[in-house]
């Protein structure tokens, strides 16, 4: 029987082998793609992992897969696209292609613009059962939204209720770096962390309280920390013992701080 709210110090294939099918509501992860970082020399076998994710994710569940591509021998690898197409091949829907846009990326050299974004693919097993959209204010009230454009180019509209809010777009803007991605100083002992706000936004959008979030590449523990903070159940796998220690320390700091104020 698998234990919830725990990080398993092992290959994620071992952890998932303990899970029944249709078990997890959401997966949120950023795998060690294209050797862009040296994660203590560990590698991952993509295709078996993708197949296991399809097995353990519930019908109408979601996988948020944060990836990018490196440039090698004068060309981008296209690994992100290859992975997205493979997820579709094994049965997932490519529900949305979102972008994680870095407001302040590291500058790059060469005959290319600075790399500002990574992909956040949303793969769904059927139609997502949960969607709690983030919204923003709008100055347009009571106007009809364009519903579709017909094959002949004509526009179709649908009436919408008067509102001062609208769904945000699928480009998510975050500042990154020391003291910004997280205030947990220990987290920066990991070579690549994603912002806590990114984890919050995605977990909020695709799950409700008490649902189960899994990260097969837990790294510094951001997914676990934010899931815990948002009253979700969570599970993680992390093959590096050192990274597990970082993640567990962050969780301990969170739990202790909450206990202090209660």
Question: What can you see in these coordinates?
Answer:
With 262 residues, this protein is α/β, with parallel strands linked by helices. It has 2 domains: 6-131 and 169-261, Rossmann fold (3-Layer(aba) Sandwich); 134-167, no CATH class. It has 6 helices and 14 strands. Strands 1-14-13-2-3-7-6-12 form an 8-stranded mixed β-sheet. Strands 4-5 form a two-stranded antiparallel sheet. Helix 4 crosses helix 5 (222-229) and helix 5 (222-229) runs parallel beside helix 6 (241-261). The radius of gyration is 20 Å and the shape is globular. The two termini are 32 Å apart.
CATH top-level class of the largest domain: Alpha Beta
Mean pLDDT: 86
Architecture of the largest domain, according to CATH? Answer: 3-Layer(aba) Sandwich
Q: How many strands in all? A: 14
**Spatial arrangement of strands, main beta sheet:** 1-14-13-2-3-7-6-12
Total of helices: 6
Distance between the termini: 32 Å
Low-confidence stretches: none
Concise description?
This protein is of the alpha/beta class and 262 residues long. It is built from 6 helices and 14 strands. It folds into 2 domains: 219 residues, Rossmann fold, CATH 3.40.50.150; 34 residues, no CATH class.
Q: Which key features would you list for this structure?
A:
two-stranded antiparallel sheet; single chain; Rossmann fold; 262 residues; 14 strands; 6 helices; alpha/beta
């Amino acid at each position: 029987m698998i234990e919830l709210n725990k990080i398993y110090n092992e290959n994620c294939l071992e952890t998932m082998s303990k899970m029944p099918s249709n078990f997890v509501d959401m997966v949120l992860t950023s795998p060690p793609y294209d050797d862009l970082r040296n994660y203590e020399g560990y590698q991952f076998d993509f295709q078996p992992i993708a197949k296991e994710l399809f097995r353990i994710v519930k019908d109408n569940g979601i996988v948020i897969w944060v990836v990018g591509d490196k440039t090698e021998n004068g060309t981008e690898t296209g690994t992100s696209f290859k992975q997205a197409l493979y997820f579709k091949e094994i049965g997932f829907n490519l529900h949305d292609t979102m972008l994680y846009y870095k407001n302040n990326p590291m500058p790059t050299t060469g005959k290319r613009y600075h790399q500002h974004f990574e992909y956040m693919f949303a793969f769904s097993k059927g139609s997502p059962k949960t969607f709690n959209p983030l919204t923003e204010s709008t100055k347009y009230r009571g106007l009809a939204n364009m519903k579709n454009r017909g094959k002949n180019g004509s526009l179709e509209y649908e009436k919408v209720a008067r509102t001062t809010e609208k769904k945000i777009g699928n480009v998510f803007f975050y500042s990154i770096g020391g003291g910004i991605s997280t205030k947990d100083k220990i987290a920066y002992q990991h070579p690549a962390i994603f912002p806590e706000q990114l984890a919050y936004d995605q977990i909020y959008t695709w799950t409700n309280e008490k649902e189960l979030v899994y990260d097969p590449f837990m790294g510094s523990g951001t997914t676990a920390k934010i899931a815990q903070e948002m009253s979700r159940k969570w599970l993680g796998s992390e093959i590096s013992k050192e990274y597990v220690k970082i993640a567990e320390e962050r969780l301990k700091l969170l739990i202790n701080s909450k206990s202090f104020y209660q």
